[in-house]
Write a structure and sequence with these properties.
The protein is 46% helix and 15% strand. The chain is of the alpha/beta class. Strand 3, helix 2 and strand 4 form a beta-alpha-beta unit. The longest helix has 19 residues. It starts with 5 loop residues before the first strand and ends in an 11-residue tail after the last helix.
C-alpha cells in the first residue's frame, strides 16, 4: 500500500510502515492517524512483527499545526479519543511493533513512539513535549504511556519547562531501548523485528497484550493471569517446535545484545 501519507512493504514476516510526509516532518494529520489505524487493524496474515519509520530526517514532529483549530469540550474529547483508538491499534494489536527514531520525536510523535513496543533511536534523535507552552495538554495517550517509560516527574518537567532530551540522555532516561549511529535506526529496527518474528506468535501476543495488563493488576491477580497465559502460550505448535529445537541443540545460543 502506498499513498501520500503512508506506505507499507512486507519484508519476509515484517511489515515496514513508512510515514511519507517528509516535507511536513511527518506531522500527524487526522488522515495519517486514520491511515495508521486502518493499517494496524488490517494486518496481512503473514505479518508477525512491524516497524514504523518516518521519511526524511525526522520521525515525527507532532501534530500537524495546519489542522489545529478551536474545538469545544465535546469536540476536543472526541478528537482525542480518535487518536486513542488509532494508537491502541498499534499498542494493543496482535504483533510487536518497533519504532525507528531519528530527528524530531516531538509531541504527538512521542505519543506515537510510546505506543510501539520497542524503540530504536539514532544519534540525531531528540524528544520534547511542547504542549505545555502552547496552552494545551497531551491527547494521544501520552499521559498514560510516557510516565511508564520515564516516570511522572520527568514528563512533568518536560511539559512545565519545555525541556528537550537528546539521544544519549533520552536512552538513559528510558525513551528508547537502543541507541545506534546516525542513519542506522531503520536497519536496526528491522533486524530486531525479524528476530521477533521468529518467536512463537502466541508468546509475542502474550508479551504485547498480557504483560502490560499483568503489571497493572494486583499481585495475586497478576500471578493468576500469568499462569493462564503461560499455559496457553506453551500449548501452541510453534512453541513446542522451538522448545524441541532448543532441547536438541538446534536453536541459537543466547548472546549479549549490544
Amino acid at each position: 500500500m502506498t499513498s501520500d501519507l503512508l506506505s507499507t512493504e512486507i519484508q519476509r514476516a515484517v511489515l515496514v510502515v513508512r510515514m511519507t510526509r517528509a516535507q511536513k516532518r511527518n506531522a500527524l494529520s487526522d488522515g495519517l492517524m486514520l491511515a495508521l489505524r486502518n493499517c494496524f487493524e488490517n494486518l496481512p496474515e503473514q505479518v508477525r512483527a512491524a516497524v514504523i519509520v518516518g521519511d526524511g530526517e525526522h520521525f515525527c514532529a507532532g501534530l500537524d499545526l495546519a489542522e489545529l483549530r478551536e474545538r469545544d469540550a465535546a469536540q476536543g474529547m472526541h478528537h482525542s479519543r480518535m487518536w486513542h483508538t488509532a494508537l491502541d491499534a498499534i499498542a494493543r494489536g496482535p504483533v510487536p511493533v518497533v519504532a525507528a527514531l531519528q530527528g524530531a520525536v516531538v509531541g504527538g510523535g512521542l505519543e506515537l513512539a510510546c505506543a510501539c513496543h520497542l524503540r530504536v533511536a539514532d544519534e540525531t534523535t531528540f524528544y520534547a513535549l511542547p504542549e505545555g507552552s502552547r496552552g494545551i495538554f497531551v491527547g494521544g495517550g501520552g499521559s498514560v504511556r510516557l510516565p511508564r517509560l520515564i516516570g511522572v516527574a520527568r514528563m512533568t518537567d518536560m511539559m512545565l519547562t519545555g525541556r528537550v532530551y537528546g539521544a544519549a540522555e533520552g536512552e538513559r532516561a528510558g525513551f528508547a531501548q537502543y541507541l545506534v549511529a546516525a542513519g542506522t535506526a531503520q536497519t536496526k529496527a528491522i533486524e530486531l523485528a525479524e528476530r521477533i518474528a521468529q518467536n512463537a506468535p502466541l508468546t509475542n501476543f502474550a508479551l504485547v497484550q498480557a504483560l502490560p495488563r499483568i503489571v497493572e493488576q494486583a499481585a495475586d491477580h497478576g500471578l493468576f493471569t500469568e499462569s493462564l497465559m503461560a499455559a496457553i502460550a506453551q500449548s501452541s505448535a510453534e512453541a513446542k517446535s522451538l522448545l524441541h529445537a532448543f532441547l536438541e541443540g538446534r536453536s541459537a545460543r543466547l548472546r549479549e545484545e549490544g
